[in-house]
Design goal:
The chain is an alpha/beta fold and 171 residues long. The chain has 2 helices and 19 strands. Helix 1 links the parallel strand 1 and strand 2.
């Protein structure tokens, strides 16, 4: 049986999460957007503005802004929903890595051994997290970013495309 997923967000990042979810074998139940102006279906799937009447299943906060992801994460977990982790099958995650609830790893991302990804992070296309590194909660590692081994990235950090994070904490 496929895992059923509500995607909280209906913008460009939500569409990318949708692609990764489908590729990983999940079924997308619906999109959710608090902005009632965003009502057009996304890829033929309903955009809801309320979760009333839905069974509490899996969700992922799929917006680029870390503070908004945190708010949505709190909202849905507070309602009894379980945060899903979406890992595109074209990414590589070592068995010894830890991936936080609600995070998404997009195609081509690599998370090496003993690396730790926090809650509700975006590990974008081609991003690399080196061994024994830590990425804090609600971070966004943009395409091609590299977190060197033994490095640390603070909560809510956003890297630039192709940025290299060395053995210091990114503010």
């Amino acid at each position: 049986m496929k895992k059923r997923l509500l995607i909280a967000g209906a913008g460009s990042h939500a569409r990318r999460v949708y692609n990764a979810a489908l590729a990983s074998g999940m079924e997308v139940l619906c999109f959710f957007d608090e902005n009632t102006a965003n009502s057009a279906p996304v890829y033929g799937i309903e955009v809801r503005h309320s979760v009333e009447g839905l069974n509490q299943e899996l969700f992922i906060a799929a917006v680029g802004d870390g503070a908004v992801r945190k708010r949505l994460y709190g909202k849905f977990t507070g309602l009894g929903w379980q945060a899903a982790t979406v890992i595109h099958p074209g990414s590589h995650v070592c068995a010894e890595a830890r991936i936080g609830a609600g995070s998404v790893l997009l195609a081509g991302s690599v998370v090496e051994l003993d690396a730790h990804i926090g809650v509700s992070c975006i590990i974008d296309i081609g991003a690399l997290v080196g061994h024994d590194s830590t990425v804090g909660d609600f971070c966004h590692l943009k395409p091609g970013s590299i977190v060197e081994p033994y490095s640390s990235v603070a909560d809510f950090s956003v890297t630039g495309p192709g940025e290299v994070v060395r053995k210091t904490e990114l503010p």
